[in-house]
Every structure is written in C-alpha cells, then in structure tokens.
Amino acid sequence: MTTMNDNTPGQKKNGPVDRVSEGNVRGSIWENESQYGLHYKTEIESVYKDDQGNYHTTNVFSRRELPQVEKVAARALERIDHMTQMNREQEREGPSRTPQRSRGVSRSR
C-alpha cells in the first residue's frame, strides 16, 4: 500500500483521498464536507487502451469486469469505514490535536 500525503489544515482538497483497484477497474474515494458533516463518495471506472494506444475510462462494465467492480466496491467500503472511524476518534480527542486523516492508495493486481 502506498500512502498519499495529508493536506494542510484549511487547504482545499482537489483529488481523491484514496484509491483502490483490481485489474483494470479502479475506485477513487472523494471526501466531501457539507452542512451535515464529512462524508465520502466513490467513483468506480474501468481503464482501457484504444487501438492508437490512448488511455480512456468508462463507467460501463462488461460481465467479465463485474467481479472486479465488486472487489473494488468492497475495498472502498472498508477504506471509508476506516477513515470515518479515524475522523470520529479525532473529533473525540478535541481541537488540541492536529487532524491526521488516513489517506492512502491500495492497489491489487
């Protein structure tokens, strides 16, 4: 597992906070702040190369890719549950500590 660096407190986050993959299917986990608090969403896509060698993504999956989608979704759920738990623990500790969200990239081939 490779870990991504935390953002500086107050810095706007532009990319996903975590990624998981299985074969050519990948999931990007996005952190969102709303009036209801912090929550996460996952974008799942398949990466493919066309005849000219250019890479593209799609959110339409073949029957063969569905087991990979299932594994990516399960790993994304595990990561979201972990990050949510970490956030709750930090909230209980209070403002005296600097937030340290767990961010990382999980890859499986």
Report on the structure:
- This protein is α+β, with helices and mostly antiparallel strands.
- It has one helix and five strands, in the order E-E-E-E-H-E.
- It has one helix at 66-93, and strands at residues 18-22, 25-34, 37-49, 55-58, 104-108.
- Strand 1 (18-22) and strand 2 (25-34) form a beta hairpin.
- The longest helix is centred in the last third of the chain and has 28 residues, at 66-93.
- It is elongated, with a radius of gyration of 16 Å.
Spatial strand sequence of the major β-sheet: 4-3-2-1-5
Describe the oligomeric state of these chains in a short phrase.
Answer: single chain
Query: Over the alpha carbons, how many angstroms does the gyration radius reach?
Result: 16 Å
Main sheet makeup: 5 strands, mixed
Distance between the termini: 12 Å
Detail the poorly predicted runs: 1-11
Envelope shape: elongated
Number of strands: 5
Portion of residues within helices: 25-40%
